[in-house]
């Protein structure tokens, strides 16, 4: 069966990631080149929320993934080992074909010589690791968040929402929401209105 190369950080594995992996698996056996924490930080400017080994475990449990290999910026070497038929990437608009190939440290000639096709798939709108972190922080601070119009947003109330009991933030001790962790559990305080 054909091998499919999918590279990425896959932080906070979400439906967009799963859709990418599912579509890649329709083409063959998916080999994920998973960015290490340090490598992801080198081009994103921040470390992933989930540690490398946590992200590995999640991907290994995904039925669409055949193999996970660590990527430290050595994509060209990984591609030589995997020998994929396709390189699949869900492009959010941050890369052109040329800039993505530059990141992989290959060029169009390499693709031709190796019989590899680059496929840019549509990015799944409405969910991203950044959005998930924003939702967590928004709920934590009990402030409304910017919506991007995704269908998932339609049924989610703005916060604070007294009807749903979301006027308090039962998180692990912090100043923004006034929650303190006590020896016997949580001591909740009222959250000031925005």
How is this structure best described in words?
The strands form two sheets. A five-stranded parallel beta sheet has the order 3-2-1-4-5, with helices on both faces. A two-stranded antiparallel ribbon has the order 6-7. The protein is an alpha/beta fold and 194 residues long. The chain has helices at residues 15-25, 37-44, 52-61, 75-82, 97-104, 108-114, 129-141, and strands at residues 3-8, 29-35, 65-71, 86-91, 117-122, 180-182, 185-187. The radius of gyration is 20 Å and the shape is globular. It has seven helices and seven strands, in the order βαβααβαβααβαββ. Strand 6 (180-182) and strand 7 form a beta hairpin. 34% of the residues lie in helices and 20% in strands.
């Amino acid at each position: 069966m054909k091998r499919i190369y999918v590279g990425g950080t896959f932080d906070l594995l979400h439906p967009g990631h799963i859709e990418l992996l599912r579509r890649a698996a329709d083409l063959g056996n998916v080999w994920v080149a998973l960015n290490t924490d340090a490598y992801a930080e080198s081009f994103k400017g921040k470390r992933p929320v989930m540690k490398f080994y946590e992200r590995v475990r999640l991907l290994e449990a995904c039925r669409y993934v055949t193999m996970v290999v660590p990527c430290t910026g050595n994509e060209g070497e990984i591609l030589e080992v995997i020998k994929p038929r396709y390189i699949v990437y869900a492009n959010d608009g941050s890369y052109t074909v040329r800039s993505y190939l530059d990141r992989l440290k290959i060029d169009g000639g390499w693709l031709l010589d190796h019989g590899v096709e680059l496929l840019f798939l549509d990015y799944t709108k409405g969910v991203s690791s950044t959005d998930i972190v924003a939702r967590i922080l928004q709920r934590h601070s009990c402030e409304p968040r910017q919506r991007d119009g995704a269908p998932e947003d339609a049924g989610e109330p703005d916060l604070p929402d007294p009807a749903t009991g979301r006027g308090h933030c039962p998180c692990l001790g912090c100043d923004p929401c006034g929650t303190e962790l006590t020896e016997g559990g949580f001591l909740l305080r009222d959250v000031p209105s925005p």
